[in-house]
Amino acid sequence: MKYLLLGSSITTILAGVASAATTIVAITPQLHETTGIATFSTDGGHMTGLEVTVRFADLTSEVANWSGSGTSGSATGVKFKLEQAGQTFSQPWTLTNLSGSPILGFSLDGHPGDTVFDRTNPSHGTTGSDQGKDLQLGNDGMGSEILGTATYSDAVKLKTEALVGDLYLRVNVDLATPYEGTSFTFMQDTDTTQFINDLTAVPEPSTGLGVGLLLSAAFFLRRRK
Ligand SMILES: [Ca+2]
Ligand SMILES: [Ca+2]
Question: Is residue 131 part of a domain?
């Protein structure tokens, strides 16, 4: 019984480590909006156009766009192949390095693929998006957890709804150390927008920003007195 308990504690500890392996950061340089979410059950076959960039230790990078068929798809360049099959909520993405140089990181841009990245929280979040999943790096194929930071940028809202904060248009991953192996997996849920080419930037509310700056200036001047 002692052994069973010990085993269970170790499992719990490992689970804790696994969830901490990927640090999550979110920024919103440019808010985007769309009419609606067509499906939250997006799979690899339905992200055609999605732009993938992979950066290598020799300071080169390569961009390739997604091509989907059936329920699977991939972005294939000369130096890498990123593939995914089945629903992104439950099935991993696999990044294979075809170059001779270790991988420093990669980024996914959903804009040309009418695809948004649905984060774990808030859940279920934006109408039609259902549960999402934060980017989580898998292991390196040799049993070690891959460490890294995933930065979400360009939050997405529905035109008819206030910003909820679970949907993003882009995600960038910086690995903690250059990846020297052949391939690794990661999890990241995606959803598909209702219409094609429907993700548009929301203009900055410049007047509101101006008022905000004036208020800040007034506060600063009051404090100086
Ligand atoms: Ca989804
Ligand atoms: Ca969601």
Answer: yes
Ligand nearest to the backbone CA of 123: 2
Q: Which SS3 state, helix, strand or coil, does residue 212 take? A: helix
C-alpha to C-alpha distance for 224 and 3, rounded to whole angstroms? 66
CA of 181 to the centre of ligand 2 (A): 33
| Span 11-70, pLDDT tens digits | 333 333 345 589 999 998 999 999 999 999 999 999 999 999 999 999 999 999 999 999
On whether residue 166 sits in a domain, the answer given is yes
* Residue span of the structural domain in which 106 resides: 26-199
- 6 in any annotated domain: no
Ligand index nearest the alpha carbon of residue 168: 2
What's the CA gap between 73 and 45, in Å, rounded? 5
pTM: 0.83
104-156, pLDDT tens digit by residue? 999 999 999 999 999 999 999 999 999 999 999 998 877 888 999 999 999 99
Q: Hey, how many other C-beta atoms are within 10 angstroms of the C-beta on 126?
A: 26
Domain count, the chain: 1
